């Protein structure tokens, strides 16, 4: 047990956080005793665990499939480089500097009286909306592991696999129960804390994910006719690129890198002080892109080899893919592997989404981590049910012609996260300023990286915010 914190100085430091810090403190309550990632590999695993998720294995393939393939991929990679990377670096930097949850970090860093903390508050809101639909897709994935083992989705006929999928998503009881199961699993890991929960779990799961993905990718590439799938993924045709497609690609970049909604501020606050932020972020971005490409390589050659359509949309993963596996030798085994790896990816990402509201509740409001987790889970079971039931009981409840599932997905990636991204660019480049930016990202001068920081700051100041705003307004047909 840690000793109780009594000194007035420490109370002064910790302010409203004293409950949590008393629990966590090993040294008598100095702020540095706050829970965080303990090793460099742990930082990488957790951050990559947040980035890699259903975005790579569910969203990226189906969006690439419906938006024409390689042309979309090129726009997405550009958005990741010009917008995603700079925003991600600045978010992690702000988090590490303030070492607090997403709301408190911005309260602490902003000049007195300026409401930048609202960006964190909107982040909490976005986290809820994302988690609401994300946990439902994850619910299907977890259910599919068992369906895959049992063999009932092992059919070459897309009509059969589509029937199985429809039966699952239109059953309100199954949809809700699987979602609650997923929420309970994520909540359970978060209860273990940042280093013993998030870091420990992602350190084990991420390497496994890579191995499984390489196995599946290799299997797919060995199929006769794989070349057509590769051409689809890598030979660009720009005729399909419209303003809406560019916005979709940029939204995917935000979603993929978990930026613009507080996750990276929160994870940044757990970063070690000696961590090289620009380098770590660059590595995470590359690895994340690599996973998306591997997922594409695992999926598209197989889709083409067996004569399926790449443009199946969100159900690609659940209808087309099982039929594809059923068509290949050893397909039963590989299908189970595939859904296990997808579940692993989704788990790391959900930990980081839910950590945003959990850390805000526990740090900002001084509630214990256990209570904060339980409160968020209960709220999510409520908000999430709007998505879980959007293929059954609430299917006719639509806003802007979208079910809650589609609406939450659309609004977060195409509006809330880009807006959050713009604000964070503006805050970093126009309020925080270059001197502090350089000091924070060079680890107070320990790293010699000014050559990188100068252009990066320029992009954050003049390029990213303008570009995000333009793409957003154009894609939403405001201009
Ligand atoms: N990056 C995750 C994925 O691709 C999703 C995510 C979004 C995670 C926002 C955290 C925050 O699946």
Automatic annotation (TrEMBL):
One GO CC annotation: membrane
Example of a GO MF term: symporter activity
Keyword flag Membrane: yes
Main location: membrane
InterPro entries cross-referenced by the UniProt entry: Na/ntran_symport, SNS_sf, YocR/YhdH-like
Similarity comment: family membership: Belongs to the sodium:neurotransmitter symporter (SNF) (TC 2.A.22) family.
Name of the featured protein: Transporter
Source species of the chain: Chromobacterium violaceum (strain ATCC 12472 / DSM 30191 / JCM 1249 / CCUG 213 / NBRC 12614 / NCIMB 9131 / NCTC 9757 / MK)
């Amino acid at each position: 047990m840690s000793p109780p914190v009594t000194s007035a100085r420490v109370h002064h430091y910790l302010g409203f956080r004293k409950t949590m810090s008393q629990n966590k403190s090993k040294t008598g309550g100095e702020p540095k005793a706050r829970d965080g990632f303990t090793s460099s590999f742990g930082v990488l695993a957790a951050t990559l665990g947040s980035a890699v998720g259903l975005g790579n294995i569910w969203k990226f393939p189906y969006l690439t499939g419906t938006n024409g393939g390689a042309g979309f991929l090129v726009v997405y990679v550009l958005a990741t480089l010009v917008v995603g990377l700079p925003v991600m670096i600045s978010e992690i930097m702000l988090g590490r500097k303030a070492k607090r949850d997403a709301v408190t970090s911005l309260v602490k860093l902003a000049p007195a009286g300026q409401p930048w903390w609202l960006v964190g508050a909107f982040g909490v809101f976005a986290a809820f909306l994302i988690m609401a639909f994300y946990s439902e897709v994850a619910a299907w994935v977890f259910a599919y592991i068992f369906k895959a083992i049992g063999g009932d989705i092992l059919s070459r006929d897309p009509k059969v696999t589509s029937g199985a999928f429809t039966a699952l998503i239109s059953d309100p009881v199954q949809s809700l129960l699987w979602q609650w199961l997923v929420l309970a699993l994520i909540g359970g890991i978060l209860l273990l804390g940042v280093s013993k929960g998030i870091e420990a779990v992602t350190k084990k799961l991420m390497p496994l994910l890579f191995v499984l993905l390489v196995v599946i990718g290799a299997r797919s590439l060995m199929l006769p006719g794989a070349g057509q799938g590769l051409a689809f993924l890598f030979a660009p045709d720009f005729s399909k690129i419209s303003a809406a497609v560019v916005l979709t690609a940029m939204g995917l970049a935000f979603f993929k890198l978990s930026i613009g909604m507080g996750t990276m501020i929160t994870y940044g606050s757990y970063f070690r002080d000696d961590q090289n932020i620009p380098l770590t972020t660059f590595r995470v971005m590359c690895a994340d892109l690599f996973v998306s490409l591997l997922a594409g390589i695992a999926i598209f050659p197989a889709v083409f080899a067996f004569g399926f359509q790449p443009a199946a949309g969100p159900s690609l993963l659940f209808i087309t893919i099982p039929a594809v596996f059923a068509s290949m030798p050893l397909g039963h085994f590989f299908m189970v592997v595939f859904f296990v790896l997808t579940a692993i990816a989704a788990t790391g990402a959900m930990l980081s989404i839910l950590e945003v509201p959990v850390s805000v509740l526990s740090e900002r409001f001084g509630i214990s981590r256990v209570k904060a987790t339980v409160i968020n889970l209960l709220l999510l079971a409520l908000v999430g049910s709007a998505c879980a039931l959007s293929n059954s009981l609430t299917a006719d409840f639509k806003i802007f012609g979208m079910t809650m599932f589609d609406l939450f997905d659309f609004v977060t990636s195409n509006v809330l996260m880009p807006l959050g991204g713009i604000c964070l660019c503006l805050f970093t480049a126009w309020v925080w300023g270059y001197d502090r930016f350089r000091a924070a990202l060079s680890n107070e001068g320990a790293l010699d990286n000014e050559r990188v920081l100068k252009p990066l700051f320029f992009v954050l100041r003049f390029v990213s915010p303008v570009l995000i705003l333009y793409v957003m307004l154009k894609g939403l047909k405001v201009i």
